[in-house]
């Protein structure tokens, strides 16, 4: 493999000195880009796009052709693991993901096996290998997975949910069943992410999209402890470099210290927390990733620049900040506004890294 030409993102995650604050965007490969829509139409549907290594590689690289981003992220979906467990993933137009066979009881959990990452999930590893080759060492490649709790919400609810009544009913009425499911998911995520590293991923991220719907006690018991178990089991070195791990719980700002104590390298922040407060609370224990409201990209380039300046000032001088949105970029954002955001981060951040 070629040496990295731009390792700013990896160095920032390790809290090492950089010339500027690196930036990438959650969902940077996706629906806001006309070229993505064309490639998806060519694939036929979303999962066909994920399963075709060449097309998944193409959409991963599309944003890098437009913007000087500091990292690429594997194009895939967090629901690949439940799909490989045989739950029958499909997508309803305008409705999001659905499962034909949701998990409803202990017998369903016992039937589920841990997928072989080079078997049922081999298409993801093929995509990682293809993307890593085609990147030619320009920027690092991020691999990722959903957290056990977040994957379980989709598996038990049968799809997206607003109130999470089915999984919370299982959590309170049959906690042992849910723990069995979460344990299997933690083992599955660990082997899946380690296979991504073996295939060429240079950094890992765990998305705990729905951890923020839990009480503090339940968050520790049903989400965080399983992410900590995964962190303990991950390959943390490859190609002679550390493989940094970022944990991101949406609406998890109240638990920053506990997340930072898992042994991860970085904590992702959504936009509901002030980055200066976050830095004060975790000190130099971990790097921070975030945290502009994705809706800010609807604003004028001048307003976007002001927001970037404000977040950079909040984090202050020194290493350990990866700039990102607080969640995924919205599908109707003008690509030019994303470009203005990235340019502002690179230009304005240099003064925070001087000397």
From TrEMBL:
<feature type="domain" description="Uroporphyrinogen decarboxylase (URO-D)">
    <location>
        <begin position="22"/>
        <end position="31"/>
    </location>
</feature>
<feature type="domain" description="Uroporphyrinogen decarboxylase (URO-D)">
    <location>
        <begin position="142"/>
        <end position="158"/>
    </location>
</feature>
<feature type="binding site">
    <location>
        <position position="77"/>
    </location>
    <ligand>
        <name>substrate</name>
    </ligand>
</feature>
<dbReference type="Pfam" id="PF01208">
    <property type="entry name" value="URO-D"/>
</dbReference>
<comment type="similarity">
    <text>Belongs to the uroporphyrinogen decarboxylase family.</text>
</comment>
<feature type="binding site">
    <location>
        <position position="154"/>
    </location>
    <ligand>
        <name>substrate</name>
    </ligand>
</feature>
<comment type="pathway">
    <text>Porphyrin-containing compound metabolism; protoporphyrin-IX biosynthesis; coproporphyrinogen-III from 5-aminolevulinate: step 4/4.</text>
</comment>
<comment type="subunit">
    <text>Homodimer.</text>
</comment>
<feature type="site" description="Transition state stabilizer">
    <location>
        <position position="77"/>
    </location>
</feature>
<dbReference type="InterPro" id="IPR000257">
    <property type="entry name" value="Uroporphyrinogen_deCOase"/>
</dbReference>
<feature type="binding site">
    <location>
        <position position="327"/>
    </location>
    <ligand>
        <name>substrate</name>
    </ligand>
</feature>
<keyword id="KW-0627">Porphyrin biosynthesis</keyword>
<keyword id="KW-0210">Decarboxylase</keyword>
<feature type="binding site">
    <location>
        <begin position="27"/>
        <end position="31"/>
    </location>
    <ligand>
        <name>substrate</name>
    </ligand>
</feature>
<dbReference type="GO" id="GO:0019353">
    <property type="term" value="P:protoporphyrinogen IX biosynthetic process from glutamate"/>
</dbReference>
<dbReference type="InterPro" id="IPR038071">
    <property type="entry name" value="UROD/MetE-like_sf"/>
</dbReference>
<keyword id="KW-0963">Cytoplasm</keyword>
<dbReference type="GO" id="GO:0004853">
    <property type="term" value="F:uroporphyrinogen decarboxylase activity"/>
</dbReference>
<comment type="function">
    <text>Catalyzes the decarboxylation of four acetate groups of uroporphyrinogen-III to yield coproporphyrinogen-III.</text>
</comment>
<keyword id="KW-0456">Lyase</keyword>
<dbReference type="InterPro" id="IPR006361">
    <property type="entry name" value="Uroporphyrinogen_deCO2ase_HemE"/>
</dbReference>
<dbReference type="GO" id="GO:0005829">
    <property type="term" value="C:cytosol"/>
</dbReference>
<protein>
    <recommendedName>
        <fullName>Uroporphyrinogen decarboxylase</fullName>
        <ecNumber>4.1.1.37</ecNumber>
    </recommendedName>
</protein>
<feature type="binding site">
    <location>
        <position position="209"/>
    </location>
    <ligand>
        <name>substrate</name>
    </ligand>
</feature>
